[in-house]
Amino acid sequence: MDLLDRLNHLTRASVEAIRPLPPQGSPIANDRYVIKRTAEDCVHAFDNQLRTKIWFKSPPLQSHVIRRIRGLKLFAESHDQGYFDDKKGGNWTWLELAILEDERATSPKTNEDGKELVWLSHPNKVGSSCYEWLQGETFDKRRDFLSSLKGGNVIAVRLCARFQNWGIYVRNGYLVIDIGSDDDPVPIRPIPLHENTKALARRSVTKWFQEAQNPDNDTALELSLFINAMAKFQSLPPNDQLSYYRIAGIHSSPRNVPWNMGNGPIPYNDPNLDERIERGEGGAYCMHNKVLFPTWHRAYMMLFERTISDLMMEEAKSRRHKQWILAATRWRLPYWDWAAEPCLPELVLMEQISIVDAWDPVTRHAHMRVIPNPMYRFQMPGGRPMGDPSYGDYRIDNAGEGPWDACIGTSRHAISLYDEQRLWVQGHTDVTKTNAALQRPSWPSELAARDLTLKDAVFRLLTANYCTKYDHFASTKHADSPDHAQCYLSLEGIHNSVHNCIGGNNFLSGLGHMAYVSVAAFDPVFWLHHCNVDRLLYLWQCSNPDKWITQIGGDDGAETDLVPFHRSGRRNDFFNSDGLRRPDSLHYTFDDMESIVDSDGEICKEYLNKHINTLYGPVPSAFNDPRKDVDPVINIIYDRYALDGLQYALHFFLGRVDRNIPYQHQRNLVGSVYTFTFPFAGPNGTTRCPNCRQQAKAGVLSHAQIPLTRSVAQDERRTPADARNYFQRELQWVAVLDSGAKIPSKTLGNALEITLLLGANQLPDGLEGEPNFSGYEPVGFDWKNAEIRDTRV
User: Fold this and answer.
1) Furthest-apart CA pair in the chain: how many Å?
2) How far is residue 551 CA from its own chain's centroid?
3) Is the pLDDT at 740 greater than 90, yes or no?
4) Which of 159, 290, 182, 200 has the alpha carbon at shortest distance from 246?
């Protein structure tokens, strides 16, 4: 039965039997509800001026309720004054539906053209003095009424009369609202822009948070709205498709729960569970080791950003001053630039956070309140572990992959066998270990501690002549014939390393959610991290405006559907990469724009070079005396599925390795490759990730690069021969599991190929120029002899 039938066929008796709309905060099932008023009311006109009156109205509607409304329809008894002078003159009494900004508003909202948001429901019967049961138009998703509703808005039923002696009399009004399934497709839209407003900038989380510490600063209102919205977001139940739990789960877990596809979860006890997951009926929308990795996550960030923005706007509208609404309008998701600032942002460090609770716009006095910080960790609503049976088929069932089903909250470097207090159950961050992983000092010690391989990798990635093709830049997916040595470096590969550094992947010293693809998105820092990944894509696009995905169709094409992100409420109408190419069309940009555009607002190549060189290049003084430098890199081809998806890492060292310290904490560690995978099949063969299994069957390989230049003193690489001799003495490597145990490289299959290359890099004469990297040639190196052979756990 289509929607028109669902509402048009209703008899008076069936309408009067419909349940009232549940109060805010109560669960709302897939059903019909009413908002009603039985009392009599009327409106009279005395001249040619329109007279209106709000008869009754809905409570403020929350975004997660609005998106589920399939349609609404007004039923009511009414009549007019009972006579008319000239029937040809028309009918001048009617009922209409209006959208009010909030519950305090007394007149309809207006659109960008200043037109009131009102729609005719139905005209009154002409010349009748007896009440008659009438029904209005059906407003479904094909009408612009529903698309005009925003979080916090109110639907009002309005009585209208015009011209002398005309009047409308009403009683027994029922506004029927048809609520659809919470699993129906949700169109993903950018944050709306107001008229004549340019795309707003996503800002550095460090600068944004610092500004917000001054309660007299308007940014403090943004922070307050953001924290309150995140807390509300995280409190929504797992069966709510726009809850934090469900949106985080899009990344991988629970594997049996689809998102935005019009279906509920596949029961865990379904005998065909694995077959249905293999057919794509479940979740696990893995988009790793694929060229679509950056754009899939761009759509993911847009969904998260818009969801938070809607919740912030709802909160703002509940306040009494427009400054709150202006703050909600200004906000965009901040990013964490972990390459320039390799330590956890202050926003995610504190278990408690102080925010503005009330604010006087006249005195600008702020009353502060301290609340639990939802950016420190996500905790399950209800305070039960993620695998608790009370969550039904929405629970996480990791089938032995890790302790995730036992976690109530998310952790970073804290889930350890040695944690006698079991702080990790509630969620905990070991700040020292996390920052140490991000700030691994280079060797030798006289080099600056922040001259990291990570920072150098980003510097190279954004240099225009380094990664010259989008497909190489975007993904770790290995092409059969790479164009040149530089193309082994990728955005996805750098992203993998950061995930591991933030989370930790050693059960002895401490692991965390961010290091495991199946649960990474539950950690709130994930969104700041991936906002920066999207920013790096944006900066690369600024340097390479004409370069894009080369393939059109297939699994990795510019027009390939980015499931499960719908462009509209129609099934199978998904975003593709072409539709996400320009961030400004998605109503955002980044604060980097302030540094890279000229007075006409156009990107200036010299400004862009200076910006990248300053943020990620060597110290500025190095650009004053540019010279050609020996540039060593390690290129790796590996099979990320060699252990059936079990995560492993390759660590590279320059110098002595201490047997008593875990490999990832070694002082002389200069670079690592993390597979960022999870077993694509459970212990009993159950399917966890269809995409991973398909890639493994197809023999798809991956690649990575470790730049070594900033880890080797200048004296050790004055010539290629010097560099070669140095590496023969000092370079070691090892393959390890996330338990910390070494594994022989032969267990990783014949595909593993590690190559040491020497090339040349030359900085420009000044920060405005472009560095040059060229001439890479492989160097003979005994990798078998350099492999560390001791065993440890």
Assistant:
1) 107
2) 25
3) no
4) 182
Can you say whether the dihedral through the CA atoms of 514, 518, 523, 527 is positive or negative? Answer: positive
Amino acid 93 reads: T
pLDDT over 90 (residue 489): yes
At residue 721, the 3 state secondary structure works out as: helix
Question: DSSP letter string over 541-608?
Answer: HHH-TT------SSTT-TTS--TT-BSSSSTT-B--TGGGS-GGGGTEEETTHHHHB-TTSPBPHHHH
CA distance 656 to 316: 57
pLDDT digits (tens, 9 = 90+) for 352-377: 999 998 877 777 778 889 999 999 99
Residues 655 and 793: beta-carbon distance below 8 Å: no
Given a contact cutoff of 8 angstroms between Cβ atoms, the answer to whether 627 and 762 are in contact is: yes
> What's the pTM?
0.85
Closest by CA position to 491, among listed 529, 522, 440? 529
Which class for 768: exposed (0-12), middle (13-18), buried (19 or more C-beta within 10 A)? middle
d(CA 356, CA 485): 52
Rounded distance, CA 51 to CA 28, Å? 36
Report the distance separating Cα 307 and Cα 569, nearest Å. 16
The torsion of the CA quartet 601, 603, 607, 609, rounded to 10 degrees, works out to 160
Spell out the domains of the chain, with CATH numbers in brackets. 3-179 (2.60.120.260)
Burial class (CB in 10 A: 0-12, 13-18, 19+), 277: buried
The DSSP H or E segment spanning 305 is helix 293-317
3-state secondary structure of 62: coil
Residue 539, helix vs strand vs coil: helix
Q: At 97, which helix (H) or strand (E)?
A: strand 93-100
pLDDT tens, residue by residue, 626-666:
788 999 999 999 999 998 888 899 999 999 998 888 888 88
Task: Note the pLDDT of residue 88.
Answer: 52
- Which residues are 116's β-sheet partners? 110
Q: Are 253 and 398 in contact (CB under 8 A)?
A: yes
Cα(157)–Cα(72) distance, integer angstroms: 12
Task: Give every CB contact of residue 444 below 8 A, 6+ residues apart in sequence.
Answer: 713
Rounded (10°) CA dihedral 586, 592, 597, 600: 50
Q: Regarding predicted confidence, which is higher, 8 or 407?
A: 407
Q: How many CA atoms lie within 13 A of 104 on its CB side?
A: 5
String of DSSP letters for 770-787: --EEEEEEEE---HHHHB
User: Which pairs from 592-595 meet CB under 8 Å and 24+ separation?
Assistant: 592/535, 592/538, 592/539, 593/201, 594/201
CB 158 within 8 A of CB 118: yes
| Cα dihedral: 55, 61, 66, 69 (round 10) | -40
CB atoms within 10 A of CB 522: 29
Backbone angles phi, psi at 473, to 5 degrees: -60, -40
CA distance 381 to 231: 10
**What pLDDT score does 572 carry?**
83
